[in-house]
Amino acid sequence: MAQTQDVIRQLNGKYPEVQFNIKKITTQGDVITNKPLPKLGGKGLFVKELEVALINSEIDFAVHSFKDLPTELTPGLIVGAITKRVDPRDALVSKNGETLDDLPPGSTVGTSSPRRASQILAYRPDLEIVDLRGNLDTRLRKVNTGEVDAAVLAAAGLIRLGLADKITQLLSPEICLPAVGQGALAIEVRQDNLEIADMVKVLNHEATNQAICAERACLVHLGGGCNVPIGVYGRVKEGTIILQGIVACPDGNHVVRSGINGDVNMCEGLGHLLGRRLLALGADKILAGELA
Question: Block means of pLDDT (10 residues each) for the chain, length 292 residues?
Fold first, then answer.
């Protein structure tokens, strides 16, 4: 809801004469909070119900966390705009203010993300990962009550909800590469609704679009629908995309990492090239389940 309200606020600034109404839709990912996300199917859990409403013309556009979008969109739907990225990093929130380096051995760290879990374990194999579901308030409460010693959350979500002061440490990409599209919002529209598509495109942020284009291409090349931990992060600097990727075993024992730089106009090609590099370095074995 906070994400949608932010988009509406921006659109109101562009189209003050238009009245926007928010239709709240509950998704499967919102309802089922007692099972790990990978066991529920992973991608699309926070998207499907919104797409059905969009296809049925119950709504004119849907606002998603870009990282929740599957690599293949539902036929008849397109991404009309990608908003300017908020901080894409993962954030550590700890009960007693410890950083990741300061947490005592055996400390429990909550996350529902295999990507976060694998990278935390690769960096600190002496920590214990605990599955942590629920909205941000629920997860923060579990940290405050000591149910877990710390949690890893998307910094962007905390920032959008005005909870940036809860962040103990922003994890550098060298420790934890973010998910594809993390920190950005995708505005999804019907392909044949040209009026709405034209309206929302004013919120499209070109540098974010270019970076995520490269990230998504890498994910596609790796076969991104699987539940193997994958992180890809691109940023644009002076006409160059700086792209990093990682594929890891869930326990963090085997990690393949690489990076590539190139012209922003080659964003999709750079993503595929990074995907090929990761596979050549051994990511193919991780993806095939040959490394445990």
Answer: 93 96 74 45 67 94 92 92 97 96 98 95 98 91 96 96 96 97 97 96 97 97 82 97 97 96 97 98 94 72
What are the strands, taking DSSP E only, across 66-213?
A: 77-82, 90-94, 108-110, 128-130, 150-154, 169-170, 185-190
Catalytic annotation present for 137: no
User: Taking a C-beta distance cutoff of 8 angstroms, is the pair 258, 281 a contact?
Assistant: yes
Choosing from 6, 30, 60, 68, which is the catalytic residue?
68
* pLDDT value at residue 292: 63
The CATH number of the domain where 282 resides is what? 3.30.160.40
Length of the chain: 292
Domain span including residue 22: 1-84+183-204
Q: Give the separation between CA 278 and CA 113, rounded to whole angstroms.
A: 21
C-alpha torsion angle, residues 67, 83, 152, 146 (rounded to 10): -120
- The total of structural domains in the chain comes to 3
